[in-house]
Write a structure and sequence with these properties.
Chain lengths: 258, 398
């Protein structure tokens, strides 16, 4: 814990240091110039917007796909089918992350299976770009969304559903007025995973697109430019975004679901 | 469930800490104008017994033990002869190599000219006593005591070989064989979305080189010494190129895959990638375009405080021995550094094809160098240094 929080503290402090471009040394003088660079350059703003935008899109997509699956697992399936589904959901987590991303590279390739499938309809696969990252991220983080929703739905007593029916609520109404409000905190809990994982990733964008995410810029500044202060300054952006997100999530009651 | 996120966070924290520690002694990454190694350093005086292993950082295709292709092997014999087990880590870019060397875990590196000076100035490498390397005597004189491998006449490594970054295309997808870099820079290119480029700030020099030939009024002489106007023109050209690039490659497997699957059909490459593709029966061809090309002249350097110095000296002697040097030059597609290597190549005309002895040819190749503020001519200190190149590269990619 000390190591974890300590490194975060160092990160914040380093964000205010400078790089002497002539000697390549870090100058321990405090100023806001790194943040000024980030603020004044259009490109950094675009990258932040792109990253947050994709993270949000992935979260919404995963929520929409995960909810019916989780609902089926929690309320409809027989115990045996439920176990089989749980295994099926967890199975992709056994495979290496890199293997899955490289598999998607093959799927999305010019002569890949997606093009082959879409060709009869006269459509072509999404190129290596924003759409590809959205697709791959949605695939990668789906289990992290299904599991919390499943746990949340399972906690809703069936008697509440029955009571709603006894009081004349149609299935649609029961879903909207009873199940959804009770399960919503679980969706928010799942969204913390999908959102934060997308926000911090830099390998997938590098492999399936040439678009940069926040993580790519941080990586480039650490590994290529050796400009640690700028990297640190940029790395504080997702931290701030995440803090705001978690504050909202707490208000929505997500933490009781974890 | 959030173990993965936690692990990622811890890994990132560890990386940050490691990078932070390594930074204090990093020296001048951009002061190649008047490079000064940090203190009086002593080269090794006497060669001892091998330590049983050696850890190398190398470009892909530089250290082959037959695992890529059973016929391509110049490591196994070395291991048998010296008892030094060779462990290799492939570096994809010069920047990656510099970072890896600063971890202190490696004994030596095959560094290009845009890394050597940073390593010397940063005190990451030690001078080399060439008396302990018998094969050094046969190295082309044109490669000895050059600004990228020596300081004040003290060699900091042994020349490995040199070559040019080539233009590659899929012969089944690109109808007319291109002879100019224009095909990757033309905004109306018919290969829009299938063009590839090297994902590294140093690629700005490729654009500058193209502008040198096509826009003479910019007055570009050296693509690594760009003043404000010239630099802006190169950056603009690359931003325009961004529109037709399908994907950038930094890792050679990524380019290999992209060409195999048809995602990329034309773009910059290394000969070794072309060799790997040809081995997979992918229809590709390469050429050195008429504008000339950027290129490399690589140097094997030994880490300061290397843990296996004797094995590293033996390796440096081995890799420039006529046989090994010929083999690596043929596999990677470059000119060897040892003049006797020309007699050992399988293709008898290899040295002619790659212009090994043709200094006039290599005058046209712009070797990778670290850009510095000092232009190196009468313009003075008005050029863009490497950190500005890096920032511009971020903007280009968007």
């Amino acid at each position: 814990m000390v190591a974890y929080l300590g490194s975060l503290a160092v990160l914040f402090v380093a964000a205010f240091w400078q790089l002497d471009t002539f000697t390549g040394q870090i100058v321990h003088e405090y100023s806001f110039s790194n943040f000024q660079t980030l603020w004044e350059n259009d490109v950094y703003r675009q990258i932040v917007l792109r990253t947050v935008g994709i993270a949000a899109a992935v979260t919404v997509t995963d929520a929409i796909i995960a909810f019916p699956i989780a609902f089926y697992m929690a309320k409809v399936a027989s115990p045996r089918a439920r176990a089989a589904l749980a295994v099926a959901v967890l199975m992709p987590l056994w495979a290496s992350y890199l293997v899955k991303v490289y598999a998607w590279r093959t799927i999305l390739a010019e002569d890949g299976i997606l093009n082959w499938l879409l060709d009869p309809f006269g459509i072509s696969r999404p190129g290596k770009g924003v759409i590809a990252t959205w697709l791959v991220f949605s695939y990668l983080w789906l289990p992290y969304m299904i599991l919390p929703i499943y746990a949340g739905l399972e906690r809703i007593p069936n008697s509440l559903v029955d009571a709603s029916g006894d009081l004349g609520g149609r299935p649609g109404m029961t879903f909207r007025r009873v199940i959804l409000p009770l399960a919503f905190p679980a969706v928010v809990a799942g969204s913390i995973f999908t959102f934060s994982l997308t926000l911090g990733d830099y390998i997938t964008p590098q492999l399936v697109s040439s678009k940069q995410f926040i993580g790519n810029v941080v990586y480039a500044n650490v590994g290529v430019a050796n400009n640690l202060p700028l990297a640190a300054a940029f790395a504080t952006v997702p931290v701030v975004v995440m803090v705001l997100y978690l504050l909202v999530a707490r208000r929505l009651g997500a933490f009781e679901q974890l | 469930m959030n173990i993965r996120a936690l692990a990622a966070a811890l890994a990132a924290a560890a990386l940050f800490a490691a990078a932070g520690c390594g930074d204090d002694d990093s020296g001048g990454s951009s002061s190649s104008g008047g490079v000064k190694p940090p203190e009086k350093q002593q080269a090794m005086q006497q060669l001892g017994k091998g330590e049983g292993q050696v850890n190398l950082i190398a470009w892909a295709g530089y250290v082959e033990d037959g695992s890529t292709d059973p016929k391509v092997d110049w490591v196994t014999d070395f291991e048998k002869e010296t008892g030094c087990q060779v462990n290799v880590k492939v570096g994809n870019t010069s920047d990656e190599m510099v970072t890896l060397m600063r971890t202190g875990r490696y004994d030596g590196v095959s560094a290009s000219g845009d890394a050597t000076l940073r390593l010397i100035a940063g005190g990451d490498v030690a001078p080399v006593n060439t008396d302990l390397i018998p094969n050094y005597a046969d190295v082309f004189e044109g490669l000895k005591d050059k600004p990228w491998n020596s300081v004040d006449g003290v060699p900091y490594g042994v020349p490995h070989g040199r070559g040019a970054n080539l233009l590659m295309w899929r012969t089944d997808k690109v109808k007319e064989a291109p002879d100019s870099w224009g095909v990757v820079f033309d905004p109306n290119s018919q290969y829009k979305g299938k063009v590839t480029a090297y994902d590294n700030p140093i690629y700005i020099a490729d654009a500058a080189l193209y502008l040198k030939a096509t826009k003479p009024d910019l007055g570009i002489e050296n693509p690594y010494e760009l003043d404000d106007k010239q630099f802006q023109a190169a950056v603009d050209l690359l931003k325009q190129q961004r529109q037709i690039v399908g994907e950038y490659w930094s890792d050679y497997t990524k380019e290999q895959q992209a060409f195999t699957q048809g995602d990329s059909v034309v773009g910059t490459t290394w000969q070794v990638i072309a060799n790997l593709l040809e081995a997979d029966k992918v229809p590709i061809k390469t050429t050195l375009p008429k504008e000339g090309a950027t290129g490399w002249s690589d140097t094997w350097m030994i880490a300061k405080g290397a843990k296996h110095p004797n094995c590293m000296y033996m390796w440096m002697n081995h890799i420039i021995s006529p046989k090994a040097n010929a083999a690596v030059a043929e596999w990677f597609g470059e000119a060897p550094s040892n003049q006797k290597a020309c007699a050992e190549t399988a293709a008898k005309d290899h040295c002619d094809v790659f212009h090994a002895e043709d200094e006039a040819y290599f005058d046209k190749v712009a070797y990778w160098t670290t850009p510095t503020k000092d232009c190196g001519d009468d313009r003075g200190a008005v050029c863009k240094d490497y950190s500005e190149w890096v920032q511009a590269w971020t903007e280009i990619k968007g």
